[in-house]
């Protein structure tokens, strides 16, 4: 496929895709795409696991896995970065913030002004064993949405939030290589707002997709239902926690046919942590 869709006759890249056919064509529903998020988490190796975990429901779908650009078995991308440029905290001082600005700039552009602070930051990171994964992950993130380019914007933002978020604020709001990325996103972010039936699953202790973010998605998808697993600090919920309340509801929604849509709960659903 084209590396750049604006230049279809130019350089190409490969994207690895697999399909595990439904085991019984008589009850086949259709294709289901497995996406593990991340970004940049390879999928192909987990399609068989998904089929087994989904049981009878999984057997009715053609399960499709795709390793996103630059990940897994797709054409790789490796910028030769230290393994752990991200996530790293801005720390408590302007000096520690400036060190991370230099590290982010070096990751994006391949060069930065040499300073003792940058030397110390570089000396603290690991070798490049995971460079390819972080390179692909960052390339995907920087293509999603444009971010502020001025390091001072991040410094002001951190100071405004530090009092309420003294520990994780400097980590979550820190500058990244996207601020120095040589290319801007080709398309604006996709804005979601419709009444298509959808099932959203989350844990109330998820620190990645927080409850506030899930509620916002729930409002944007006005025809959706929200399942919340209580008392669990995790990002993976369906099939990962052994919560029958969650798994059975998702399976019922997935068990659609040509003349019957998936079954949504009558309202939003709260599930207790297994064993509680």
Report, as a whole number of angstroms, the end-to-end distance: 49 Å
**Shape call:** globular
Helical amount? 25-40%
Question: What can be said about the biggest beta sheet?
Answer: 3 strands, mixed
Nearest-integer average pLDDT? 85
Number of helix segments? 8
Structural class of the secondary structure composition? alpha/beta
Low-confidence stretches: none
β-strand percent reads 5-15%
Series of H and E elements: EEHEHHHHHEHEHE
Please give the number of β-strands.
Answer: 6
Lateral strand order in the biggest sheet: 1-3-2
Query: How large, in whole angstroms, is the Cα Rg?
Result: 22 Å
Summary of the model, kept short:
The chain is an alpha/beta fold and 276 residues long. The chain is built from eight helices and six strands; from the N terminus they run ββαβαααααβαβαβ. Helix 7 (211-220) links the parallel strand 4 (198-203) and strand 5.
Tag the structure with descriptive keywords.
alpha/beta, globular, 6 strands, 3-stranded mixed beta sheet, 276 residues, 3-stranded parallel beta sheet, 8 helices, 11% strand
Write the layout of secondary structure elements.
Blueprint: E1 17-20, E2 30-34, H1 47-58, E3 61-66, H2 94-109, H3 116-123, H4 131-144, H5 151-162, H6 169-172, E4 198-203, H7 211-220, E5 224-229, H8 244-254, E6 269-271
Parallel strand pairs: 2-3, 4-5, 5-6
Antiparallel strand pairs: 1-3
Helix pairs in contact: 2-3
